Amino acid sequence: MSSVRPETDSIRRRESAEQRAEVSSPRGAGRIVRSFTGERAKPRAKEQEVLDVATDYFLKHGYQGASINAMARSSGISKESIYRYFSSKKQLFEAVIGRELVEYQKTVLRLDATAKTMELREALIAIAEIVLSVITTERTLALRRLVFEEATRSPDVGQHYYKIGPEQGFGAIERVFAAHGVKSDRPFNVLSRHFLALISWKIMLERECAVSEAPSKAQTREWVESVVDDFIKAFLR
After folding, report:
1. Residue 201 contacts residue 194 (beta carbons within 8 Å)
2. Which of 5, 35, 95, 212 is the right S-S partner for 28, CB 3.0 to 4.6 Å?
3. Whole-prediction pTM value?
């Protein structure tokens, strides 16, 4: 008869599954994503601590260079605590992505509630500033690089990020168009992608190529106002 205790054997099986990247649905990520829709409150304190440690570890070591075993050893958090919330490294990574976008999501939802009270130009400027304030930070750039790198091996990681990040931005812009009865020769889903491309392409290219630092609020405002005015003239009737 084996002397290995059942709970120890269970942990080992989970570690093996994580190392083989055998992943089921992202339990942890789902909890974080639901938090800003009102279905669940903030993660519990211990879960939050696990995510704090995991975020720093992924940023320092990359996704491929990270392991839950090493993460536990370096942080002092037990493997049991990590596996209590996340059954694999991949689920943990998706939860990290989800948490990083929570404030962005909340801000987008707040804009939904106020967009109708704004002029169209003002509403477009507001959503553009929200997006740029998130995507131009060093932290977001670093996480995006990790997401894009891992997406070449695990497309669902990239799809998860796209769904809770860029897709939310597109939806918010489409709702602004709808709220203001925008008239255009193009459907709203096409317009929203044109708009975000115009807003972000130059700044993001310069940031990714280390040509410039993150823009100040004043610089962002100046850029956004110029692009919004050009967009309205070019695409709206």
Report:
1. no
2. 95
3. 0.74
